[in-house]
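Proteins fold reproducibly. Consider a sample protein:
=====
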Amino acid sequence: MDFTKQTYCNQVTSYIRSLIRKGTLEIGAPVKEAVLSEQLGISRAPIREALQVLVQEGLITSEPQKGKHVRQMTGKEIYDSYVVAGILEGAGVAESLPLWTEANMETFRSVVRQMEGKISYATKLDELAEIDELFHATLFMACDNTRLVEMARTSCATISKYLYYQHWITMFTPREYADRHHAVAEAVYSRDVKHVETALRDHYKETGLRMAQFGKEA
């Protein structure tokens, strides 16, 4: 793989993330600087820097005497992360939904239509990963509490986007995925903030329950 010297760290970080996402670096697997250095044909310094970034992101753990490993989570940690995401997203959307203009609502409807179009020919959930991200990001379009948005978007992002992505893409059929997101969309269309908050909490709880089965035993 070719690397530009000025951006070694960023490129190595992205490379390792991709290995985790694809399952090439499995949950709990050791991550060794020497091996990566040999694979990439670069010195250890940018690799060490990249690994520190990934430790801070929660994708890799680092322990004295044990070294660095791809993070492994218990089922409860996974479930709790999704519950927190549902609480935060539900609160953020419920707070900002009364501020939505008709233009905001039409933007959301447009995203739902895009989602429906992709679902019509999708055979696997990984084909819907981008529209899933857009769907949830659009729900926050009128929320000005940037800290809440950041916490909501990151509380389970490392799980579904990277660590357990290969499990996430098998959890629901495209049809099940559609039904779950339509339930949230219908709640939004109603403009009933309590309904929206409940729908989002339930949405994340169900995902958390399914994902938790892939966690390690406590």
